[in-house]
Amino acid sequence: MDDKDRLRILLVERSLELGDFTLSSGERSSYYIDARRTTMCAEGQELVGRIGLAVVRDLDLGATLVGGLTMGADPIAYAIAHASWQAGAPLDAFAVRKSPKDHGTGRPIEGASVSGARVIVVEDVITSGESGLCAIRAVEEAGGTVVAVFGLVDREAGGAARLSARGRPVIALFTASELLAYARARR
Domain of 64: which CATH number? Predict the structure, then answer.
């Protein structure tokens, strides 16, 4: 079994829930994907780091940073940064705050400075694309250039199209329908 197959299994076992859910958009859904339940477990961190780094390197866009809107993007960006250090080609991470603190530096972006950097914005689950768009705005306002968007799961709800309409490639490792089909096949 390769890393991507194992990550798919973890996402289905740990992150996919069937039922009746209200999404952040207010829409109803018969399933919910809480990717953090996978990206915050030890095995998930290792897999996401290796796979995510391979995707970033395959894109070959000269990215120097990875990050996105806290909290969903954080474990993915940190796992990729960690894997990049282990591979001997460091790629640092950052986190975009949902709102700047009103004390200390008041920065909207924590971690590595995005000014002048080529950045890959990360999303755990792409639904409407709003989290990615928020991160893109913050990076651009801070002087960075967003070269791509990397998502763990695309819910296929229009978010990936919204993000790619901004002129950047959007790469998702999995689609919601792929995870749902896999879950049904395992029953």
Answer: 3.40.50.2020
Amino acid at 62: G
Give the domain range for residue 30. 3-186
- 16-43 pLDDT, tens digit per residue, is 999 999 987 788 999 999 999 999 999 9
Q: How far is CA 4 from the centre of its chain?
A: 15
Q: Are 132 and 163 in contact (CB under 8 A)?
A: yes
8 A C-beta contact, residue 177 and residue 149: no
DSSP secondary structure string, 115-177?
A: TT-EEEEEEEEESSSHHHHHHHHHHHHTT-EEEEEEEEEE-SSSHHHHHHTTTS-EEEEEEHH
145-169 pLDDT per residue, tens:
999 999 999 999 999 999 999 899 9
